[in-house]
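We treat protein structure as text, and this decision shapes the records that our systems exchange. This encoding replaces a full spatial description with a residue-level series of whole-number codes. Below, we set out a record of this kind in full and without editing:
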Amino acid sequence: MSNRGRIDETATTRNEELREDRKTERVSMAKGVNLDVKVKDGYIGRWVSLAIEGRVQRLQEAGYEFQVDALGNQIKRSKGGSDLVLMIVPEEYWREDFELGQKKIDDQVNEQQRLSKDEYIPDGRKGVISRDSVI
């Protein structure tokens, strides 16, 4: 009798035990690179590349600070050949920046959807029709 296509209950149980023993939250590979990091309450952390000229200075002007360890050293890591440093910002600043960015996106979408005086969208249609093209 073949075991192909059958689930190994021992392996399944072991995987469940491993998930329960895991001390850190699993990050899905489907998410891609996530630069946001959990830090102390009231702050948002972000890994910042040191290779991008002026990036750290711009973030400091926006209220970001370096996250330091217990000895006062900046927290750093390497990723894909780049050196990254962990920076934090008060959550209220982060939300303000997020809302400004979202407003910019909303304004762009609204501008793209604005109709000229000779265009209209018939009920139930997704496309714009020009009145000049109607015979």
Summary: The chain has a mean pLDDT of 76. Residues 107 and 113 are 10 Å apart (CA to CA). Residues 31-133 form one domain.
